[in-house]
Design goal:
Elements: H1 2-81, H2 87-117, E1 126-128, H3 130-147, E2 151-156, E3 164-166, H4 168-184, E4 190-200, E5 203-212, H5 219-223, H6 234-240, H7 246-256, E6 260-266, E7 270-278, E8 308-312, H8 316-328, E9 332-336, H9 339-351, E10 358-362, H10 370-379, E11 389-393, H11 398-407, E12 411-414, H12 419-430, H13 437-442, H14 447-467, H15 475-488, H16 495-511, H17 514-531
Parallel strand pairs: 2-4, 8-9, 8-10, 10-11, 11-12
Antiparallel strand pairs: 1-3, 4-5, 5-7, 6-7
Helix pairs in contact: 1-2, 1-8, 2-7, 3-4, 4-7, 9-10, 14-15, 14-17, 15-16, 16-17
Length: 532
């Protein structure tokens, strides 16, 4: 009996050892498998990060390579529009400009889709005057709306703060897209852009609505309206055109800001798109605590021609474009083909006793790029107060702006560059240090001041011509002044005035006789005075 018990104990111990050994083997196998899986996951993560980096680099290069030639197309058409063109030539050049801007919007849409998918989209939230932003967006679409006989109006409820914290670039992109669609799909009536505040249990919400009296969207179309490359009603899509990207991107951009976009529509009645964004009030623009970029003040018009500016740009078309713009502003400019040449030119100019006042620095150049050139200049002792450096960049994403600032640049101009934008930025940095806010406000050292002077001059000229003897009025000279005004009015938010000026110019040229010219002026004066 004791022997039997002993045998059973030995067998039980052996069985327990066997089970323990099997479990140990299984655990070792599982551990090895987990380690292999961990290695695989790490490798997959590394590949994904490499792919993300590659995609980000590709997007930056694509943005630069596509925007750079577009910058030339849009910039040179702008210069042409400001030259002495007849009506047919002006219309043809305007079509080229419109096509260039449409292509730029398409490029922005495609790049944004890729950036969102790659998780590379970053926001730059800053204090924004919402009322002014909505007015600007509406004004940009007014010319197209007027050609269709439509009115575009804006309304902002008093409850909306003067300043809100938003990503102003992305908000502008979404609002422009919604207004553009409203104008596109509306044949009669108008478009209203409204902003209100909605109080919810989660806190106040900013509501921005774009309401039109257009063709509306079918119930089937509403189901896919925010799907990329989908336009709902295919027959209408073929008739009106488009890529089907705008609304999808708008929805994704709003989603990134923890907001949402909704749509209500009925066929034949109209459509209402509404953005709902968390409302964060910013410091008032009039408050002394409001953040503002450092400025050296604006300059008097007599100071701009004396400015000595270096343009660091490798693209020949853009070189010619920026040179033409600086020449039109009466500015002495010199070219550098890359960052290394730019650094050498700045050093040589200082040694020669005629240093540069400002550098316009392209970010992407062969060899030494704009960022590295800026770092080298700062290391050589050229401070921001001595030598402001303004980035010329096709990439206006937050990380690009941050990279410019980190390298030592003071500001940036996004491509496509316009004469107005260039003049404003140069005026911002070329003035004497310590210019007061009051002096800055009254300064005439920018194109806007010149434009306002010209507009007032023409208004006075026309008022006198209404009452003077027709044969004592220089009607040909007035027609010439109107032609100049019509060519630039839209650049300063007076698109309506530009249209009326061109119409009055045409009437005066067709009238011929002094009495007929005065009659034409009397007929067109109310519209001109209202637009001015």
């Amino acid at each position: 009996m004791p022997e039997t018990v002993l045998i059973l104990v030995v067998l039980a111990a052996a069985a327990a050892l066997a089970v323990a050994w099997l479990r140990l083997r299984r655990a070792r196998a599982e551990t090895a498998a987990l380690k292999d899986r961990e290695v695989e996951l790490c490798a997959a993560l590394e590949r994904a990060e490499q792919a993300g980096t590659a995609k980000s680099t590709f997007l930056a290069n694509m943005s630069h390579e596509i925007r750079t030639p577009l910058n030339g197309v849009i910039g040179f058409t702008e210069l042409l529009l400001e030259s002495d063109l007849d009506d047919e030539q002006f219309g043809n050049v305007q079509l080229i400009a419109d096509a260039g801007h449409a292509m730029m919007r398409l490029v922005n849409d495609i790049l944004d889709v890729a950036r969102i998918e790659a998780g590379q989209l970053r926001l730059m939230e800053e204090p924004t005057d919402l009322r002014e932003k909505l007015r600007q967006c509406a004004k940009l679409h007014e010319p197209m709306a007027r050609r269709k006989g439509l009115a575009v109006s804006t309304f902002v409820d008093d409850a909306v703060p003067e300043t809100v914290i938003v990503d102003r670039l992305r908000l502008r992109q979404v609002i422009l897209n919604l207004i553009g669609n409203a104008v596109k799909f509306t044949e009669e009536g108008g478009i209203d852009v409204e902003a209100r505040v909605e109080n919810t249990t989660q806190g106040p919400v900013l509501l921005i609505s774009v309401i039109d009296t257009g063709i509306g969207i079918s119930e089937e179309g509403l189901e896919t309206i925010f799907t990329p490359f989908s336009q709902g009603d295919e027959p209408l899509a073929r008739h009106y055109g488009g890529t089907g990207l705008g609304l999808a991107i708008s929805s994704q951009l709003v989603g990134v800001t923890n907001g949402r976009i909704t749509v209500h529509s009925k066929r034949g009645i109209g459509t209402n798109f509404t953005l709902r964004l968390p409302l964060v009030e910013g410091a008032s623009a009039k408050s002394p605590t409001a953040s503002a970029p450092p400025r050296r003040g604006r300059v008097d018009t007599t100071e701009l021609p004396a400015a000595h500016v270096l343009i660091a740009e490798d693209n020949r078309i853009n070189q010619q474009l920026v040179l033409a713009m600086t020449q039109s502003l009466g500015i002495d400019a010199r070219l550098a083909n890359n960052g290394e040449e730019a650094v050498r030119a700045v050093v040589e100019a200082r040694e020669a006793g005629r240093p540069f006042d400002v550098v316009l620095m392209d970010m992407q150049m062969p060899g030494v790029d704009g960022l590295e050139a800026t770092r080298r200049l700062r290391d050589l002792g050229f401070t921001a107060s001595d030598l402001p450096i303004i980035a010329l960049t096709a990439n206006c994403y937050p990380e690009d702006v941050e990279a410019c600032s980190a390298a030592g640049m003071q500001s940036h101009i996004g491509k496509p560059v316009t004469t107005v934008a260039l003049a404003r930025e140069l005026a911002r940095w070329l003035g004497p240090a310590g210019t007061s806010a009051a002096g800055e406000a009254s300064s005439r050292g920018n194109l806007e001041a010149r434009y306002l002077q010209r507009k007032e001059h023409i208004l006075d000229l026309l008022r006198r011509s209404l009452h003077e003897a027709p044969d004592k009025t220089d009607w040909a000279g007035i027609a010439g002044e109107l032609h100049k005004l019509a060519g630039v009015a839209a650049n300063f938010g007076d698109a309506r005035l530009g249209t009326v000026s061109r119409r009055l110019e045409r009437c005066l040229k067709q009238a011929g006789e002094p009495d007929c010219c005065q009659a034409a002026l009397l007929r067109e004066w109310p519209a001109f005075e209202q637009a001015a």
